[in-house]
Amino acid sequence: MPISPADRLAIHELLALHGHLSDAGDFARFDEVFTDTVSYDLTAFGAGVVTGRDALRDMALQLGDNNPLAHHVTNIVVSPTGADSAEALSKGLAVNTDGTTGSVTYADTIIRTDDGWRISQRVITPRRKPLTP
């Protein structure tokens, strides 16, 4: 099923907005990015699955200064899965307060809601070894 250029652009902007809101600590606007029941899988980091937008906000607030200094998203590939759903695969780069950086892969399930496209599920996988899927 094809996806319109307008929807594709909206999804790209949705993924970019997450980093801007996170870096600004503007978690009150997470409703512009995530469904209220989002599943945010941090299992690869030992943090399990965070369920719900409020729980995701609370986790970020609890991390405080241990959050990355900056989030960047790139290499976005959108694959429609239905008229109102898509999967997005992207790369994330984080800059930490100590100057170190990290790279992750985001695997997102995105759905069209009454308010626009929102992430309903995100799985984050750290990149720790070259040439691995």
From TrEMBL:
Pfam families: SnoaL_4. InterPro entries: NTF2-like_dom_sf, SnoaL-like. It comes from the Bacteria. This is Nuclear transport factor 2 family protein. Residues 6-122 form the SnoaL-like domain.
